[in-house]
Amino acid sequence: MLGGIALLILLVIAWRWLVHKPADAAQRKEPPAIAVDTATAKHADVPIYMQGLGTVQAFYTVTVTARVDGQIEKVDFTEGQTVRKGDLLAQIDPRPNQAAYEQAVAAKEKDAAMLENAKRDLERYVLLQPQDLASKQTVDTQRALVDQLAAQLKVDQAVIDNARTQLEYTRITSPITGRTGIRLVDPGNIVHGANSTGIVVVTQLQPMSVLFTIPEDNIAKVMARMGTGATLPAEAWDRSQTTKITDGTLASVDSVVDPTTGSVTLRAVFSNPQKTLLPGMYVRETVTQATADYIRIATQRLC
Predict the structure, then answer these.
(1) Do 177 and 85 meet the contact criterion of CB atoms below 8 Å apart?
(2) pLDDT tens for residues 119-157?
(3) Domain boundary at 179, 202, 225, which?
(4) Which of 25, 127, 188, 268 could form a disulfide with 234 if both were Cys (CB 3.0 to 4.6 A apart)?
(5) Which of the listed residues 202, 223, 240 is the one where a domain comes to its end?
(6) What is the pTM of this model?
(7) What is the four-CA torsion angle of 122, 126, 132, 134, rounded to 10 degrees?
(8) Burial classification of residue 276, based on how many CB atoms lie within 10 Å of its CB (0-12 exposed, 13-18 middle, 19 or more buried)
(9) For residue 167, what is the enclosing H or E element?
(10) Number of domains the chain contains
(11) CATH (domain of 121)
């Protein structure tokens, strides 16, 4: 009797399990599939990155100063403006130098007239000498006067050239193409040629260079790659290494090792198209070179 009851209970349990099994299975979710990207194995260079903290330097920086004394009539640039070589930056009152130039020209004209008269007198004395109407001393003295006046004309021309140069110096122009800095003098001020304070600083921003250092242990690899004629790419990043500023190339390596730090200075050149590199900036410099050995690479990405 008890055995029959137990068998009946087992049959009920088995029936309930069979009835509810499909529903339980439907409620269970399948695990998400993992996406896998694959690529064919291939040979490629593995880049090696060498990093260092660098300082941005301009190839040319010029403090534009006055070369003659005078009063500034106008300043013909805007702070931060990009100027080209030869563009007018400031104008000094040219009237004193203009007067000196015209005076030098007039002095030459006067001496030229005296030379022509002395030549005519010499010709007359030479004609009269055979007739004993002019002594040999008179002829020699007149010939010396002609030579003296001819030499004076050369002196006058030199004075004219100098006066013209001084007059041209009243126009202060940019010696290079670059960006102007803060104005250092205002119109109306008196400037002097001996004053080194300057009127404005013009800085070339394209291209720019970055000086940075790497450990001396790495210099052999860099020199080996440069010796093959390969161009080593360089990148300029901000100091946090989160933003790349611009790309360039390694230009040169210093010839000495700093004994205090055991590092070597390198120079990288950047075209700086956006003019984002400014002199004095500190940047994180990265030089990329490829390994000489080839390594088989297979790539995959898990999502």
Answers:
(1) yes
(2) 998 888 888 877 777 788 888 888 999 999 999 999 999
(3) 202
(4) 268
(5) 202
(6) 0.68
(7) 10
(8) middle
(9) helix 136-168
(10) 2
(11) 2.40.50.100
